[in-house]
Structures are given as structure tokens and as C-alpha cells.
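User: I'll paste a sequence; please echo it back and then give the predicted structure.

Assistant: Echoing your sequence first, then the prediction.
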Amino acid sequence: MSAPLLDTLTAEVTRGVCRLMLARGFAPVAELILPTGRRLDVAALGDSGELVAVEVKISVEDFRQDAKWPEYLEFCDRFYFAVPETFPQELLPGDQGLIVADRFGGAVRRESPSVRMATARRKAMMLRFARAAADRLQRMRDPDFV
């Protein structure tokens, strides 16, 4: 697949994940920067303060070249891989959640185990999430601001 097709597929899976999270009562933010500087594909915040992390993988090569995803586990209560229907799902770790998504929505194929974050880390992540969401909303309202 060429780079533009991969970018489009990533955007479609991300959109489907965000729609799924909304349907499940979570507020999603795509591309949340973690304190480590890494970028989480989708973070979703629930009413109870539960933070879900989703890593989008669109190809076998994409998954095999990624050694950083375990670093995301300490910044969430639940972790999922999200893939298109054509992805060979048996390659993904069986101890993490699994979402299959396209541009219209997604479905959880395997629930993620819940591991509660430490209170201080939860507070820091909720602040990071809120600031990122507010910043994006304001930039949409006023795109000419420098």
C-alpha cells in the first residue's frame, strides 16, 4: 500500500474508534501527547474518570515495527489495539483489548483488562486530556490565532 492509502486507512480506523468510544459513553481525543512525548492514537475519558487508550495498527508491518506500545500501558486503565477487518488479528497480543473499526464505527472483539492507574497519574492524565481537548476546540473556533 502506498503512503496516502495508509494515511487514509489510519484516519478511517481512528474515526471508527472515536465513534465507538462516543457510543460507549466516552469522550475521545485523537493523538494525545503523553508525558513521555509519545503520541497515543486515541485516548477516551469516561464519566468515572476511566481512561482508555487505543493504538491503531493498519498493517502487519506497522505492528511489527512498533516496540513502543507497551509504554502506553502505564497511562491508561484499559488498552486496546484497533485494526481494520482485514488485519490478521491473531498477531496481536491476546492479553490486550481488540477493536475492529472502519470509517463508520467499530466493535470490541476482545475486552481489555482493567488496571487502575495511580491517583496522581490519573489526575495528571485528566489535566493533559482536558487541556488538549480545550486547546483543539479553541483553535477550531479561532484558526487565525497564532
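Residues 119-141 form the longest helix (23 residues). The radius of gyration is 15 Å.
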